[in-house]
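Quick one, tokens below:
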């Protein structure tokens, strides 16, 4: 293995620790590799950066980002909150359960965990405080619930993984439903337990009658149809995953007309937000593609393969090692960037050990979703705390039970493949 690639990797980690923008850190690492290898034409660097963002499958990213942003301007969020509250508002930990359900349902609409966390932090944490919950608990619950978003289709991480590993994005969309619902149930159980132990009881009486459930359901019905339309359309061949993104945009505009809450000014503002958000994602993908090329040229995938194959003799140990490795990486490197670099290394290994490609994909995506909550670089933690003004130390202390639950969920997902491939096998 070339010393230069080692130097470039260390440089990447150092720059990330210095909180240099992710795409700049990755590009600098890739550029250092080419600079220290003068025999390699530097034009290749530019070519790899450009080609990394030119995959047709990646067009789905700005489409779904745009659809998610438009959804926020249609009044969908308030309707879904009302519907969730009518279902679980009066049980122990009521508003906490509402938070988890909202995150689960909104995950199928926005596709962005940071956007969902920001929205829920502004809307639900103050409401939780009014009803007796601590600010720290509310902040942790919002950030943890946002992890469900990458798992519920259409998740951006699924699109990126599918385009890198040449795995069916439609199957990944379906595979995410099981883990998303599993995590939703586990979080609601934890919320109920903590609320019971701490005596979190609301003074607010919520109307949970069948009449209100039906009324709020009617209000939330059209938005909740979007994931069904996307998955159903892809399954029957009506459109590709990329085209599904444009369908989602049209549908969000349709909801804007139906609810009459989205103005032309909102559309222009949404388009601006789409450009900014999509650009940030695509820059990371493009730069990571160049660094991934350097790793491939130095035969790092083959080196890793031989290392694992020589020292591991079964899939169970391999999956445990992968989980530990990805959890550590996810603490320091942005999930999408790490995925582009590491998936070409790990996917062939998973295939060697006979692990289903869809199952392994969801394990990887879940790991990087956890990384967004983990210090020192957890973006979900920073976004939530910045909005709720919760101290970072208090947040981490309050999050301990949630970290334990998430590790348990990861192990269930890893070693019970039916959570991921069961529904895929049923539909496909």
């Amino acid at each position: 293995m070339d010393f230069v690639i080692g130097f470039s990797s260390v440089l990447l980690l150092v720059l990330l620790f210095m909180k240099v923008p992710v795409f700049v850190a990755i590009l600098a690492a890739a550029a250092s590799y080419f600079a220290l290898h003068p025999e390699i034409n530097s034009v290749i660097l530019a070519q790899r950066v450009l080609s990394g963002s030119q995959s047709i499958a990646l067009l789905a990213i700005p489409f779904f980002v745009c659809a998610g942003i438009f959804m926020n301007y249609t009044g969908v969020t308030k309707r879904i909150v009302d519907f969730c509250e009518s279902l679980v508002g009066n049980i122990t930990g009521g508003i906490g359960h509402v938070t988890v359900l909202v995150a689960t349902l909104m995950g199928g609409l926005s596709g962005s965990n940071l956007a969902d966390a920001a929205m829920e932090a502004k809307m639900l944490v103050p409401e939780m405080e009014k009803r007796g919950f601590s600010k720290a608990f509310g902040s942790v619950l919002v950030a943890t619930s946002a992890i469900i978003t990458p798992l519920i289709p259409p998740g951006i991480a699924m699109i990126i993984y599918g385009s890198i590993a040449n795995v069916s994005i439609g199957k990944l969309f379906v595979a995410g439903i099981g883990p998303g619902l599993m995590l939703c149930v586990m979080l609601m159980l934890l919320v109920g337990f903590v609320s019971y132990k701490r005596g979190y009881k609301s003074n607010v009486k919520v109307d949970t009658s069948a009449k209100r459930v039906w009324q709020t359901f009617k209000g939330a019905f059209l938005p909740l149809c979007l994931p069904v339309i996307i998955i159903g359309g892809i399954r029957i061949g009506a459109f590709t995953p990329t085209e599904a993104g444009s369908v989602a945009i049209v549908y969000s505009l349709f909801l804007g007309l139906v609810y009459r809450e989205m103005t032309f000014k909102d559309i222009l503002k949404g388009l601006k937000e789409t450009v900014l958000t999509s650009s940030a994602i695509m820059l990371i993908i493009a730069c990571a593609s160049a660094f991934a090329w350097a790793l491939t040229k130095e035969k790092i995938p083959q080196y890793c393969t031989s290392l694992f194959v020589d020292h591991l003799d079964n899939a169970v140990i391999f999956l445990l090692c992968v989980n530990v490795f990805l959890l550590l990486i996810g603490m320091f490197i942005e999930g999408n960037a790490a995925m582009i670099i590491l998936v070409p290394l790990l996917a062939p290994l998973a295939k060697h050990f006979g692990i289903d490609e869809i199952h392994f994909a969801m394990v990887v995506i879940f790991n990087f979703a956890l990384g967004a909550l983990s210090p020192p670089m957890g973006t979900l933690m920073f976004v939530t705390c910045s909005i709720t003004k919760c101290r970072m130390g208090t947040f981490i202390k309050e999050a301990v039970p949630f970290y334990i639950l998430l590790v348990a969920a990861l192990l269930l997902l890893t070693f019970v493949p039916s959570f991921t491939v069961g529904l895929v096998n049923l539909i496909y």
